[in-house]
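Subject: sequence -> structure tokens, single chain

Hey, anyone have a minute? Need the predicted structure for the following. Not urgent.
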Amino acid sequence: MGKNSSIEWTHHTFNPWWGCVKVSAGCKHCYAETWSRRVGLDIWGARNERRFFSDAHWREPVRWNAEAAASKTRRRVFCASMADVFEARSDLDWVRERLWTLIESTPALDWLLLTKRPEQIAEKAPWGNRWPPNVWLGTTAENQLWANRRIPILLEHPAAVRFVSCEPLVGHLDLSRWMSREKAAHGINWVIAGGESGSKARPMNPEWVRSLRDQCTRANVAFHFKQWGQWCPDRSDVSVSAKRLRVFDSFGKASTIMRLGKHSAGRELDGRPWDQFPIPEEGALTIKVFAAD
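Reply:
Had a minute. Here:
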């Protein structure tokens, strides 16, 4: 975490604090909670204290901003990989205020604020109907239930980019009502999809991912496939001893997936990576396709 993040869709990560509370199905096997416990921290749950950081930590994005400005190359900062900046705790308001100031003072960085609590945005964010141009605002939609609840609230806020993270993807999703060529200025601008990793990862049906890709393609919405995770489509070059499952889409079509592990499963979808990003340009949005840099 920090500069040169390993997360495929961002350059850097920044955490104003560590710690959170599980709120929905996507949180079941939370990697951030697992990691924090691995390093000996008990910071998960409504009553537990959060972990905060020094001034040196807060100066890091200032340096990233100077580097981006000097190279005339914008950099994306994911905030926050180990927390939710819109967690409904008043004792976090002071550090949130520090974050808003930092975002406004680093205009060469695009800040990706991803939340499972979009209902808190209006109260916690200070920008009302005039968001800074370097804020990309996103919510997680791991299945249709949470897409229906969260995305309409997300779209109430006029951030430069509105995005949806469908990771871990644990069910079929139809996002088409919130994205179309006619809704380009008011709907979803970017979709990230990925399967769950870890020893307890839930299987992801490959048709769920293909459906999201096809919805994005039809609507000219940027699509980024992050990873297969622990499970991926069956491959003939893998030992027959690998664990395999039969999965079915909503029309009863069967396919076989195998447990291969995140690294070996990779992130190619139908023979190629999908690394699309929305690029705000003079009040409009275009899609740029390039390898994660």
